[in-house]
Design a protein that fits this description.
Helix content is 28%, strand content 34%. The chain is built from 2 helices and 6 strands; from the N terminus they run ββββαββα. Strands 1, 2, 3, 4, 5 and 6 form a 6-stranded mixed beta sheet that branches. It is globular, with a radius of gyration of 13 Å.
Length: 113
């Protein structure tokens, strides 16, 4: 069954599936997409180049600002050198889900694929 959200609650926070486009014209959350495996991913564009972790830093900066979370609570835990990444958001899974789900739903309804 396909997941309807790029968010997944884990014991110490949330995992967020991302698809990142580096070297974009602006830093932005661009929408939600479905992967070939049937997962939902949050699409991001960053102006940084994908070398020496610059794009990952830009992703963390963008999302910490958009979600009003400290940068220290966000970590890329998978796909550091790939455009498909898994981001870990540290904190209470229930309160994070309640806070981030509406923000992600808004993005999905705006850009829509």
């Amino acid at each position: 069954m396909a997941s309807t959200s790029p968010l997944e609650a884990v014991a110490d926070g949330l995992r967020v599936a991302l698809r990142v486009t580096p070297k974009a014209s602006r830093n932005a959350v661009t929408g939600i997409a479905d992967t070939a495996e049937g997962r939902r991913v949050l699409k991001l564009a960053v102006t940084a180049v994908p070398e020496n972790g610059k794009a990952n830093e830009a992703v963390i900066k963008l999302l910490s600002k958009a979600w009003k979370l400290p940068k220290t609570s966000l970590t890329v835990v998978a796909g550091a050198t790939d455009r498909n990444k898994i981001l870990h958001v540290a904190g209470d899974p229930a309160s994070l889900l309640a806070r981030l789900s509406p923000l992600i739903d808004d993005v999905g309804s705006e850009g829509g694929e």
